[in-house]
Structure formats: structure tokens, C-alpha cells
Amino acid sequence: MAELKLYDTLTREKRLFAPLDPARGVRMYVCGPTVYDFAHIGNARPVIVFDVLFRLLRHLYGADHVTYVRNITDVDDKINKRAFERWTHERPLTAEIRALTDQTLAQFHADVDALGCLRPTHEPRATDFVCRPEPSALDMVKIIERLIARGHAYVEQGHVLFDVPSMPAYGRLARRSLDEMVAGARVDVAPYKRDPMDFVLWKPSDPEKEPGWESPWGFGRPGWHIECSAMSGALLGEMFDIHGGGIDLVFPHHENEIAQSCCAFGTERMANFWMHNGFLMVEGEKMSKSLGNFITIRELLASDRFGGQNWVGDVLRLAMLKTHYRQPIDWTVEGLNESTNTLDDWFRLAAPDQPAEPSPAVIAALSDDLNTPKTIAELHALRNHIRVPQQGQDAEELGRNLAFLGFDRAQFAAWQKGREHAVLQALGGIDEADIGRLIAARLAARKARNFAESDRIRDELAAKGIALMDAKDPATGELTTTWKVAR
RNA sequence: GGCCUCGUGGCGGAGUGGCUACGCAGCGGACUGCAAAUCCGUGUACUCCGGUUCGAAUCCGGACGAGGCCUCCA
């Protein structure tokens, strides 16, 4: 088996990976979306990156020996606010919230399916893990009770707070000491906090406008971080192999998860490897609503807001994987165009209908901390060995690797076809049959060595953005002409 | 203010203490009536200043620049 090396944010080093408990397989948890609105392209990065890791792990350890959990945050103040705003009082507020989160989750699934991502093994919803009746079923309330019992949390004015000073190792992931953080002085001071760094595990809810659950501390709802401790604990165990997410989650989210899980379970570590993907910029600028460059996955797939056209999931996927996951990535129209051309070339040469099976060189590249740029270079090397398009071992090997990496030839081809149609529609008064007739007329003119006429037809089509390509049939030597939309 | 990351050729983007990826664009050639497409070939790099070393773009220190986190955020 190839050696898998992964970078661990906690120790800041690349280490050899091995499952903590081979009998339980590889266990991975990745922070998923808060379902209140369309996911943006920055949200797509961890989804794609950890999908590639999931595929790699399944290949290395067997599909049945990898458990991938990606949570759905469906209790959150942004959700509450959004649901309350659109609430018409025709149904209970909780039903309104559920409708909003169901709808957003369906959108999210459609988006990530289009991006070629496999569904995780489990996609737990936070609301299903607040309070579970069976005594043995781990949930948020039970973790909070354990934290209180162990002296790591306290109740104050209906809130339960994590007692940060009670955990000496707090701050290890983010590499910052308590003194430094307090010196930052931008922490939220609240009367119910003993220490400014203490964070909320449970808070009271207003039954009129907020969702809530009955608990030993009154009607309320969980704080942001506790859901991940509960769901990872319930589905993966007290310690598991890999915990992933965006780098901006390192502090405070993951730091607080570690504090909760380790203090509740009495463990040294929560995850053996902490993996964080880098930040995404759009055309060199931070993506933000105020700059007007905020872009959702859906807008990229189904509108012309970015670059004046829509894009297919495969292009977004390749564009994302061209940069190593820990590097910052600049999301540009030029990058999407380049990815489009690369896929066009690969699919032109790769043999169709191949099973998903990676080459050793691809596995080796991915096994080096998910080096996807190196992986892509291996694909280019393979591509350069292909002598006859779609035929021979190299063409089959390229096809197998593309399938393994989650690229979908049919989806890409359908999109290309759609773009052609759109261009022809925009031209108006010309369709594929017309083009076929013009091509035939040009071939006839060429045969008659009437080059003025044949060039005139070619120029006429070129002016409309249709490029002609001549080729000789290798068998008959007959001249054939194909066309494509030149953009 | 504190902490962290990064700075590679025209562009994108890996990697490495000595053999200097890869892709796009450019350039040259083949093919073509001429093109396009395709195929073959090809130049250019490691922000700056010190230090360690036989040797550094790669390690160390500093400067400058970019970004992130410290508050919701992938």
C-alpha cells in the first residue's frame, strides 16, 4: 500500500497517516454547511477537497472501511433570523425553520452533486443530536452535563458556559495563549461569563421567535460548537482519524470543539489529524457581499454572473484542484477558461466508459498530502502518451483516472452542447443543418480548387464565431470538416 | 496591537540543499492551396538584504509586500 502523508495543523507537520483503529476503518469528520442560503464558491472548496481525500481513502483502505461524516448545521441564529423574517404564522415557527433548512439542504445537495462529490457516509443534522431519549445515545445535552460534572462548565443566568481556564491545553491548535487572546481584547464580554474567553454551550431561547429544547437548564438551544463534538462523538467515537474544514474555522470553532470533546471524554486528542483548506479569493479580492463579488455555486452553474456564461461542475472541480488545498486560491474567469480547455482536451483523448481506477502515479501524488497539482501533471503526462484519440492503453488509463477523480464526461459533453446551442441561438437564423450545408458547399468548392469561394464560406462562419477544422480520415484519406464554437 | 500563512518564469502552479515539474500563452517547425485544429520542438523563474554550507530559490535571521485569524464565516 502506498504511504499516505497528511499535514496536521495541530503539530504543523506532514506525518505518515495510519488509522487509529484499523478494525473501525478510517473515520473522518468535516464541518459542513449552515443551511440558511445558497452555498458560495468558498464553501465548495472543502467539499471538493475532502471528497478527493474520501476517494483516496476509499481506494487505499477499501470503500467499506472509510466513514465520512459531514454535518448539517440547521440550528443557528442566521437560520432563525431568516425563518422569522419570512414566517407568515400559518404554521409553527419550528415548521418554518424546518422548511427553510430542508429547502437549503436540497439546494446544497444539488450543487455538490453537480461538482462531482460523493455523498458522505453520514450527513447528520444538528437538530437530531440536541437531545436523544436513549440514555446510551450521545447528544449535546449529555456532553454538556458531563462537562458540568467534570468541572469544565458552569450554569449562569440560563446559559451554560465552557470554563476555558479549566483546560490548560486550550489554544494549542490555534497556537495562541490565553494571555494573547485576552490582550486582543476583542472578545465578547457578557455578565454571565466568568472569564472573557468562556464560550456558550447552551443559551436560553425566546419561545416566540426562536427554536428551543427543554433541558436541565431551561428552554434553550445549543451554542455553535457543541454540535460537532456531539455528532462526531456519536458517529465516529471519542477519538477519530481526521477532522477537516476551512482554515478560518481553526479559531474559535475547532479549538472549542477540542476543548469540549477532550474535557467531556477525558481524551488527549479529538482527531489524530486536523486538516484545513486555504482561503479563496475572487479575482484577487476577498469575496464579500459589499464588494459585489460574492458568488454562489448555483450562480456559477446556472447563471452568467461570473464571466458572462454558466459553467459546468467539472470545470469548477478542476479549477479548484489546480491549486494545492492548503494554498490560497484565486478564483478567476481565466482559470475557469483554462480548466475548460484542459477538460475538453482530456475528454477528447480519453477512452470513454472507463471504470474509476487510479494509476499508481496518481495515487502517489495524492498520497503526498493530497498534491492535486502534481496529480494533474500526471494526467497531462498520460495524455501526452496517447497516440490515437480514445484508443489504446494510455487513453483507457486517462479515462479511468478522470472517473476516479470524479470528472463526468457526459455532464461535461452536455454542457458543451448546451453552449453551442446558446451561441447558435444568439446568432439567430442559423442552425446545425445550415452549418452542415455550408461545410458541404465549402468542401465542394475546395474540390473544384475554387479557394476564393471556400475561404469566403470559412470567413463567413468565422465571423459568427464558428471555427472549422479540417482533417483527413485516416482510413480513406477523405477530407472531413468539423466545427466548433470558438469563444 | 497579538498570532499565523504565503511571496517561483508573461499567466496559472508543484517541488526541492546540487540533476532547475506541469499547464496556458508566446515563439519555431510539420501538416495545409492558405488557415484553423492537431502533432513535434523551444526561451524565460525562484521578492530583497544578510548568515549557515563545498554548494540555497530550497535552511536561519531581517526587510518589504500580500493574505488570513483574533467577531459570524469554508
UniProtKB/TrEMBL annotation:
Binding positions (Zn(2+)): 31, 228, 253, 257
- The Cysteinyl-tRNA synthetase class Ia DALR domain extends over 361-413
Q: SMART domains annotated for this entry? A: DALR_2
Q: Which GO terms describe its biological process?
A: cysteinyl-tRNA aminoacylation
The reaction(s) this protein catalyses: tRNA(Cys) + L-cysteine + ATP = L-cysteinyl-tRNA(Cys) + AMP + diphosphate
Q: Which GO terms describe its cellular component?
A: cytosol
The EC number(s) given in the record are 6.1.1.16
Q: Where is this motif: 'KMSKS' region?
A: 286-290
Q: Where in the cell is it found?
A: Cytoplasm
Q: What is the protein's major site of localization?
A: cytoplasm
Origin: domain of life: Bacteria
Q: How does it assemble?
A: Monomer.
- Name the family: Belongs to the class-I aminoacyl-tRNA synthetase family.
Q: What is this protein called?
A: Cysteine--tRNA ligase
Query: Which organism encodes this protein?
Result: Blastochloris sulfoviridis
Q: What is the lineage of its organism?
A: Bacteria, Pseudomonadati, Pseudomonadota, Alphaproteobacteria, Hyphomicrobiales
